[in-house]
Amino acid sequence: MQNRTLEIGVGLFLMAGVLALLLLALRVSGLSVGSAGDTYKVYAYFDNIAGLTVRAKVTMAGVTIGKVTAIDLDRDSYMGRVTLELDGNVNNLPEDSTASILTAGLLGEKYIGISVGGDEEVLKDGSTIHDTQSSLVLEDLIGKFLLNSVNKDEAN
Fold it and tell me: 136, exposed or middle or buried, with CB in 10 Å at 0-12, 13-18, 19+?
């Protein structure tokens, strides 16, 4: 009888460990178990969306306030259109707020950072953020640096 109780205890402990790992994997991947709750959609247009993915976080002052739900190409302006799903409790963002594609660390994941503007009109469901800053592409930066150093050597 004592052996059976020990086996049941070990089994429950293993089940709790597997459940904890599953919840950790869901949290790290950006997926959620429950519903999103009250949210609204806002659009932003960028010249370059390199590295940004669906389910990337949207932050303001370091606090996550939403996520990226869609990325597509606008056929009229040939710019990347990003659909942001923002939390409903952050419903007082000014219309002239700025959206920037940022990198966590030197080579980390890309996410969108919102900087607050000063307009009295607020973003509503379906609004567009017009002031955006595109993603910094490390290869372009290295290319410009190398090209600039080559031009300096030729001038001397």
Answer: middle
Do 99 and 85 contact (CB within 8 A), yes or no? Answer: no
Contact 129, 107 (CB under 8 A): no
* pLDDT tens sequence for the chain (156 residues): 788 999 999 999 999 999 999 998 887 776 655 555 789 999 999 998 888 999 899 999 989 999 999 999 999 999 999 999 999 898 889 999 999 999 887 777 899 999 998 888 999 999 999 899 887 777 777 888 887 766 666 666
3-state secondary structure 25-50: HHHHHCCCCCCCCCEEEEEEEECCCC
The partner residues of 46 in beta bridges, in order of sequence, read 80
Region at 103 (left for phi over 0; alpha for psi -120 to 50; beta for the rest): beta
pTM equals 0.70
